[in-house]
Amino acid sequence: MDKKNLYINGNWVEANEYYELKSPYSQEVIANVPLADKSHVEEAINAAHESASIMKKMPAHKRADILLKVSALLEENLEEAAKILTLENAKPIKAARVEISRTAQTYRFAAEEAKQLFGETIPMDAAKGAEDKFGFTIREPLGVIAAITPFNFPFNLAAHKLGPAIAAGNTIVLKPASQTPLSALYIAELFERAGLPKGVLNVLTGSGGVIGDLLVSDNRVKMVTFTGSLEVGKRIKELAGLKRVTLELGSNAPVIIDKVQDLDRAVNKCIQGSFAYSGQVCISVQRIYAHEDIFDEFLEKFASAAQSLVIGNPQDEKTDISALIHTKEVTRVTTWIDEAVSKGATKVLGGELYNPETLLPTILKNVPRQTSLCTLEAFAPIVFVNPIKDINEAIKEANDSQFGLQAGIFTDSIQTALKAARELESGGINVNDVPTFRVDHMPYGGVKNSGLGKEGIKYSTEEMTELKFVSFTS
Ligand code: NAP
Question: Which of 39, 102, 159, 289 is the most buried (most CB within 10 A)?
């Protein structure tokens, strides 16, 4: 069995205690993982704090080179990295490969961004009394950044924090989810091989409940960048004080299907958007509002396509749907299905278990508003389809949510598309695509309880800098 170490100040450090990491699908123990304690948090923050001056002086071309090298190493080792992912979070292998390729691209975007940290000149003579001044801005690194990441895209979502942090010349303490520590330790190895100076990246594995507060409240940490649940995000915001905070939280993403000519395109995209990685995606399609004129046809085609998804071992090349991250999640969503049915919803497909770890793709219709399935984040292969009379009703239903991360609409009408783009309360709107569409350089981040601040490499790199103003008097 693989015994892992913490990564602190460029050293692989043993912990006092370890936990057994189990693969979600097979339930086999795949590694012994260190449980960081208070002293490790102190050492990691100290190392990141001490190495901040090294990063501040490192030229942009060197920061870019390190990021490019990590990207290349990931591509060279794509199969190995994808296998780690499949083992630790049960992502089907074909989707795991896509995540690794995307991660390599995310680091390349970050390398490009390292060389784009422009300032601007300020027309000082626009103000009376400042005619003799010349003013400009520069962007400086913040210093130590605490990065806390979730289980579902452990490579790429860590890259959305490490990439921009290094591009902007910061140092990092990374705390990955307890279920996905192996990817974080693997990426630390690649950064080491790429020549990142000691102390710049530190990885603390172990329980967020135990070390999270210490990380978030330490005054040497200048920014907390968090991706995860609303509950933890709220706590981080409360504890972070005056630190900069970025929160990328959950959602129950809606998609509207208008009376479109090409219903098959909407069906195919909704299949991908609802069931990719068993719905454990923050922008997974959870609520579909289909126009009443095409409702029956859409539902029939959608259910039939969902039925052909392949369920099973994530290591099999053909698998589309596999185990949820923990069996307790299976129990939770099964209760939600029962609740929805008891309140009037109809089960169209699934609802049963493939095995104790895996829920079959599930579709319901006519789900009432006051159900967990409508109001909370399912994070499972469950989606509902409700009929709507017109675009006004669809937008009203879609907006009736505490969340607002991304939304989608399929329509053949430019007027309807523009109306939806203006009126949907969401961080991003995808016209003729599902909310699940994301590429890694676009601005991305939620409104309402879906978060605070934007990711997307350009945007997060900027958030990880301080804008300094300089004036010269002639
Ligand atoms: P989670 O339970 O909130 O955990 C996220 C991270 O926070 C983990 O590393 C966790 O560590 C840590 N954590 C737990 N308690 C903490 C505390 N008190 N202080 C600091 N950190 C703490 O989320 P998850 O189950 O891994 O991920 C699923 C959630 O992430 C969903 O809500 C999903 O929508 C959201 N998500 C959002 C985006 C986005 O971009 N908006 C992307 C992906 C996922 P432990 O694992 O040790 O508890």
Answer: 159
